[in-house]
Amino acid sequence: MAVQADQAPQTSTPAAAAPEAPRPQDMRVAIIGAGMGGLATALALAKKGFSDIHLYENATGLGFVGAGIQLAPNLVRILTRLGCWEAIEKEATEIRETSIRDGASDAELTHVHMPNIRKMYGYPHCTGHRASLAGAIYDACLKEPSIKFHFGCTFEEVTEWTPKVAFTITKRESNAPDAPTETLRETADVFLAADGVKSKTRTQMMATLGHEASVEDTGQAAYRIMIPREKMEHDPEMLALIDSNQVTRWIGAKRHWIAYPVHNKTIYNMSSTQPDENFAAAPSATYTTTGSKADMMGVFSDFCPLVQRLMDFVPEGEVCEWKLRMHKPLPTWVYETTALIGDACHPTLPHLNQGAAMAIEDAAVIAEVLSRAPDTDPATIQRCLKIYEFMRKKRTTTLVDLAAFSGRTLHLGDSKAKEERDRMFAASKQSGANVPDKWASPDVQKMIYSHDCMKLTADMFDGLYEIL
């Protein structure tokens, strides 16, 4: 019918636009612990566009301490992508060789040349200072407005696991014994526990699932000492060590030292492993203490004069000693929308130099899977976290077991097994392969250093999401 001139044509009212579905990047993420794993998790999520990241740390501020650390290519790859590596590399030492030596005689058992690591894997193998690594990640986090730090906040417990995680925090203003405290009740869509080998979250999660998760002594302890260049530079033998691009390991029965230059070759870092017999009396709440120089010298009294002179440089009161503790492998790292990270789920002995690297790989994979979540339903988030566990659990178990195996091999006393190990060392000196010290063995390096956890997760996510 024709429309009259004085009649307005009828029009249909457009339908209201459907509200946008919540984005995974808008979820509230809580991270417990501002160690390597926690900091890297926060940064990796921020780089993926997550906008509401809360990191709770027991300390009232971050003052980074610690000794040296090896920075392998699989770790450097992630640090580069997170924008942290450039600052760390400025003071790092690129490692090009390693010497494994008999602790008592200083005779070289094998020498592994590593000049092509950067070319082979795209990234170098370096040594650096733990404070520089943690500090660079923290500085990068401070540039991300989506990351909020909550210092002086001690995680107490999860009170609800789902649909949102509800948890309590005790907040204190300072470290003073009489500092006032306040109980905070917080919630999060995703709860990530990077709270270390003493993880309260792990203990509570495993108890909820009917499993045991207690920490166990390994029977081993470690010393960390750092020797300034000025104490070494008047001794040609020592000067050669600190000026080198070499990791040196001196091994003996149940004990060893590993040493390398850090901080632009101004510090010589030394870390040991030995039976846990002289650890200063300490409650189970702490695993680190100031060690006795006399005890340290006694433990290694049969090591060669060079090692004796190096140890003697350390002033009394500057010997750091810590217990090496672990826990049994866990049946799962994930419950509802909560996941464990780093030492909270796979603590390791230090013999492969992969502890921090594994935690930071965890962080990168967590960010990959959560950024790919198709929606924010708790069941979807749990499925994504299960993909994280699938991508990480087998690899970390392999490395933890290999580190323990390597330690047992290095610490052999007089025996047929030691004779066979030393024959293998001698053969590897000629062949450059099958080194009994596994971190220096090219086949193990290839397995560890070529692993690109971020790319693998991106490539496999869709297929795994359908079946997990």
TrEMBL record:
Keyword hit for Flavoprotein: yes
Keyword Oxidoreductase: yes
Residue ranges of every copy of the FAD-binding domain listed in the record: 27-216
Residue spans of biased composition, Low complexity class: 1-20
Keyword annotations of the record: FAD, Flavoprotein, Monooxygenase, Oxidoreductase
Chain positions covered by the region annotation Disordered: 1-23
Alphabetized Pfam families for the sequence: FAD_binding_3
Family (UniProt): Belongs to the paxM FAD-dependent monooxygenase family.
Protein name in UniProt: FAD-binding domain-containing protein
Source organism: Sporothrix bragantina
